[in-house]
C-alpha cells in the first residue's frame, strides 16, 4: 500500500509529526468549524461569514474588549489604491499583550519575528473571506520554546473564531 512504498516513508514520518500534535486540538473541538492548517506552514485558516472590513472590525472590537493592544491595522487594498493599483480587500491586524509576549521574547529574543501576533483577512476571487494566523504551537516549536508558554499566545484563538463565525 501507500505507506509501504519507499518514496512515501518520508511523507508518512512528516505527516505523523503534524497529526500527533494536532490530535489534541482536534479532539478538543477547536476545529469544529471550517478551519484548516496548511501542513508544515503553521498557518491556520478560518472561513469568515462576513466581509473583510466587517471581520476586521469585529476582531478588533473583541481584542479590545479583552484588553489586547492593537499595534496596527493595515488595509492593503487601500494602500494599493493610493499607489494607483487595485487588489481585492485584504487587511491585517497586528496585536498582542506585552505582559503575555515579553516572557517569550525574554526566553528567546528571535520569537519577536512572530510577535506581536497577526491576523490576515482577505477576500478571494470568488468573494470568499478568510482569516489566517500563525498557529501558536507552530510558533513555539519554531523557536524551541516550551509548551508552558502556549497559554501566553493561544488565548486569542477563540476571538479569531468568533470574529469570523458569529
Features:
alpha+beta; 166 residues; globular; 2 domains; 7 helices; TATA-Binding Protein
Descriptive account of the structure:
This protein folds into two domains: 29 residues; 133 residues, 2-Layer Sandwich (TATA-Binding Protein), CATH 3.30.310. Helices cover 43% and strands 22% of the residues. Helix 2 packs across helix 7. With 166 residues, the chain is an alpha+beta fold. It is built from seven helices and six strands. The N terminus is likely disordered.
Overall shape: it is globular
The unreliable regions are 1-32
Oligomerization: single chain
Total count of helical runs of at least 4 residues: 7
Mean pLDDT: 84
Our estimate of the beta-strand percent is: 15-25%
Structural class given helices, strands, pairing?
A: alpha+beta
Strand order of the largest sheet: 1-2-6-5-4-3
Element pattern in H and E? HEEHEHEHEEHHH
The CATH topology of the largest domain is given as: TATA-Binding Protein
Major beta-sheet overview: 6 strands, antiparallel
The whole-angstrom Rg is 18 Å
- DSSP summary, beta strand count: 6
Terminal Cα separation, in Å?
A: 43 Å
State the name of the first-level CATH class of the largest domain: Alpha Beta
CATH superfamily of the largest domain: TT1751-like domain
- What's the architecture of the largest domain in CATH terms? 2-Layer Sandwich
Helix content: 40-55%
Domains (count): 2
